[in-house]
């Protein structure tokens, strides 16, 4: 289940936006301009069910997202979606992995405290016995130049 | 019938005798004739795998996908609490303080150890470095990677963290760690091939009880491990998926 973000969780001045996901559900998100730098040497790893519900997270995911593991498990992966991210990027992600292919892109993620962090994300379908049983997503530190390109490009896609 | 056991060529040189002792112990416990063949280079190992010569292998995670998906291997155990990590190191006097300081044509020393190189190259990505814009310096082992740094022949070196930690104090004093990976989910695994798979449960049981065996504990010690832990099939599939996401 996806719930609105709460003002008491937010650190710093925030703006509001309402995101509507591809399944038609909406969520009020609160976001700030505070960036959390991606730590060197770490990978954020998660798996989801075929419907995009988080089924596994590693410690780096918990640290960077600001949510507890209990809050993340069972939540839809779009809990991390930032309003600055164009919906077209996620459509491309889902279209690609549902074809059974690997997707890679640069993503601005929303933290529980309203801040954000940039990642280079790779998502692959988990195929077991010929069936897609879920997806694995691995995020790593992006280069600043790629992030800057995305900061210029993404607003033109929204 | 005799079976063949091998160990990924990135084994620590001072553990070589430990692997021979382990093989002797395993033969006795399993009552199988197992010959240990050590390869110094991945090229030779991969030729042996392609020729279906191997029945038991302590495999690099990079090879695990191919062993499972193309050669029908199954996981047995992994060293308890151990994972593969890599280090990006520079000469202690280098003016590079952050990976982001690196520029194209950086001279990068590494070995042919594929998972360490993969992890290292991922840690260089924040500087927009990739295989196409670095000057590679392929080295025979991790000590030679360190020597390239000491002699100023390389700007950065990619070294298996365990190998870095085992370098002499004198060498480490002249090096500096730029980044140490904290991936935790990539590890070597002992895997069993199709010809021996009817004995998979027996081998797993023997290995999982090894640390409690009178002689087994000492053998594990010779390998630098405390105990083995079971790898479930899904755990192995997860690591293969993970390697797949990283290998892009």
Automatic annotation (TrEMBL), chain A:
All residue ranges annotated as the PAS domain in the record: 51-74
Matching CDD domains: PAS
InterPro entries listed in its UniProt record: PAS, PAS-like_dom_sf, PAS_fold_3
PROSITE patterns: PAS
Top-level taxon of the source organism: Bacteria
Pfam families, alphabetized: PAS_3 (PF08447)
Record protein name field: PAS domain-containing protein
Organism expressing this protein natively: Methylomonas rosea
UniProtKB/TrEMBL annotation, chain B:
A Pfam short name: Phosphonate-bd
Top-level taxon of the source organism: Bacteria
Name of the protein: Phosphate/phosphite/phosphonate ABC transporter substrate-binding protein
The organism of origin for this protein: Methylomonas rosea
């Amino acid at each position: 289940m996806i719930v609105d973000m709460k003002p008491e969780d937010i650190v710093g001045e925030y703006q509001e936006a309402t995101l509507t996901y591809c399944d038609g559900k909406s969520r009020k998100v609160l976001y700030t301009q505070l960036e959390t730098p991606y730590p060197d040497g770490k990978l954020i790893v998660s798996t989801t069910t075929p419907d995009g519900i988080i089924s596994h997270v590693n410690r780096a995911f918990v640290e960077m997202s600001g949510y507890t593991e209990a809050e993340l498990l069972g939540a839809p992966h779009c809990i991390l979606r930032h309003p600055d991210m164009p919906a077209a990027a996620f459509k491309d992600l889902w279209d690609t992995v549902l074809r059974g292919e690997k997707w890679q892109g640069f993503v601005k993620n929303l933290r529980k405290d309203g801040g954000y962090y940039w990642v280079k994300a790779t998502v692959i379908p988990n195929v077991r016995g010929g069936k897609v049983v879920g997806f694995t997503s691995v995020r790593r530190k992006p280069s600043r130049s790629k992030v800057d390109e995305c900061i210029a490009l993404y607003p033109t896609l929204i | 019938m005799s079976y063949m056991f091998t160990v990924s060529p990135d084994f620590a040189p001072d553990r070589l005798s430990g692997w021979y002792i382990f093989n002797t112990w395993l033969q006795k416990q399993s009552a199988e004739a197992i010959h240990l063949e050590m390869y110094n280079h991945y090229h030779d190992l991969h030729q042996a795998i392609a020729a279906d010569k191997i029945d038991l292998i302590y495999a690099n995670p990079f090879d695990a996908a191919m062993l499972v998906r193309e050669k029908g291997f199954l996981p047995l155990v992994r060293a308890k609490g151990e994972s593969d990590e890599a280090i990006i190191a520079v000469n202690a006097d280098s003016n590079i303080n952050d990976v982001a300081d690196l520029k194209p044509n950086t001279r990068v020393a590494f070995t042919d150890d594929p998972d360490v190189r993969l992890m290292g190259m991922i840690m260089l990505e924040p500087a927009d470095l990739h295989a196409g814009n670095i000057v590679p310096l392929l080295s025979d082992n991790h000590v030679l990677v360190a020597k390239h740094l000491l002699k100023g022949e390389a700007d950065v070196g990619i070294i298996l963290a365990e190998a870095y930690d085992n370098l002499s104090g004198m060498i480490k004093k002249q090096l500096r760690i730029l980044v140490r990976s904290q991936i935790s989910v990539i590890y070597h695994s002992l895997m069993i091939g199709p010809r021996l798979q009817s004995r998979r449960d027996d081998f797993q049981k023997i290995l999982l009880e090894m640390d409690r065996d009178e002689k087994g504990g000492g053998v594990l010690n010779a390998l630098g491990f405390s105990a083995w832990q079971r790898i479930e099939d899904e755990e192995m599939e997860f690591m293969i998926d993970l390697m797949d996401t990283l290998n892009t």
